[in-house]
Amino acid sequence: MTADESDVRVLRGPDGTMPALGFGTWALRDDAGRRAVLCALETGYRHVDTAEMYGNEKPVGDALRRSDVPREDVFLVTKVSQDHLDASGVRHALRGSLDRLQTDYVDLLLIHWPSTTGVPLAETLGTMAELRAEGRVRHVGVSNFTVALLEEAQRVSPVPIFCNQVEYHPYLSQQPVLECCRAGGILLVAYCPLARGRVFQDTVLQEIGQGHGKTAGQVTLRWLLQQPGVGAIPRSGSAEHIHENFDVFDFELSEEEMQRIFELHHGERYIGGSAAPEWDT
Ligand SMILES: NC(=O)c1ccc[n+]([C@@H]2O[C@H](COP(=O)([O-])OP(=O)(O)OC[C@H]3O[C@@H](n4cnc5c(N)ncnc54)[C@H](OP(=O)(O)O)[C@@H]3O)[C@@H](O)[C@H]2O)c1
Prior knowledge:
Elements: H1 3-9, E1 10-13, E2 16-19, E3 23-24, H2 30-43, E4 47-49, H3 57-66, E5 75-80, H4 87-101, E6 106-111, H5 121-133, E7 137-143, H6 147-156, E8 161-167, H7 175-183, E9 187-191, H8 203-212, H9 216-225, E10 230-232, H10 239-246, H11 255-262
Parallel strand pairs: 3-4, 4-5, 5-6, 6-7, 7-8, 8-9, 9-10
Antiparallel strand pairs: 1-2
Helix pairs in contact: 2-3, 2-10, 3-4, 4-5, 8-9
The structure holds NADP nicotinamide-adenine-dinucleotide phosphate.
NADP nicotinamide-adenine-dinucleotide phosphate (NAP) binds at residues 24-26, 49, 112, 143-144, 165, 191-197, 200, 217, 233-238, 241, 244-245, 271.
C-alpha cells in the first residue's frame, strides 16, 4: 500500500484514527440489521455507524458479539438523540446505547442533531468529555453541524471535536463545512454518500466507472475517500452491494475525473426537516 493509499483507508483525526470507509445501518433493523452488520464485518468493514434513534443498536451489538472480529478492531459509532442533550439525558442515553450494543465503550459518540430547545452546547459537550474521561467514549463528535455551530463547538468543548457527520455526495457541495473542518483538524464523515441510491443512474458517474471497471457507486465512494479528511458510511442490506461498496481500494480517480464529479453538485439535499439548523449551502 502506498502512503497515499493508506490515507484513503485511514483518517487521522485530532486525537486518533478511524477507518475512512464505514458501514451505515439506518433502517436495517432486527434480523436484517444483524445479517447486514455480520456481512459487513466479514467483508472487512471495521467502522460501523448506528444511533440511538435508529432502533437497531441491539442487532448491531448482537452482530458484533457473534462476529469473529475482536471488539477492539471495530470503530463503533453511535449518536445521542436531539431530545437527550442535557447532562442527565446524555448520560442516560449512552447507558442505554452501551447496554443495547453490549459493550463497555463506543469509539465515537456524536450529537445526532444540534439542540432545538436551547440546551447549551457547552453542557452537552462537557458531559460527553466527562464520559470520555470515564472511558465509556473514546472520541467526541457532532453531526449535522453548520460552520457557526462547529465554531461554537470548538470554542466550548473541553476535548477535541473528532468529526462532523453530514450529508455529502456528488449532488450536494459541503465546501464551507469542509473548509471549516479542515481548518480545525476535524474529520468530515459523509452520510447518504450514495445519494440514497440515486448515483447509480448517473451517466457521468457510470462513464467514469466504465474506464476503471467500476460502478457509479464505487466511483462516488472513491471520490469521497480521495478528498483529504473525508470518510463515508454507505448503507446496504444486500450482501452483493456490501461487497461492492468495499471494493474501492484498487483504483484511483484522476484530478480531471475528481473535478467532473465536483461539478455535478446542484444543492440536492435529502435529509433535514424541523430537526435541521439553517444550512450553509
Ligand atoms: N447523522 C445523520 O443525521 C444521518 C442521516 C442519514 C444517514 N446517516 C448514516 O449514513 C448512512 C448512509 O446513508 P443512507 O443510508 O441514508 O444512504 P446511502 O448509503 O447513500 O444509500 C443507501 C441506499 O443505496 C442502496 N445501495 C447501496 N449500495 C448499493 C449498490 N452497490 N448498488 C445499488 N444500490 C445500492 C441501498 O439499497 P440496498 O440496501 O438494496 O443495497 C440503499 O437504498 C445511514 O445508514 C446512517 O448510518 C446519518
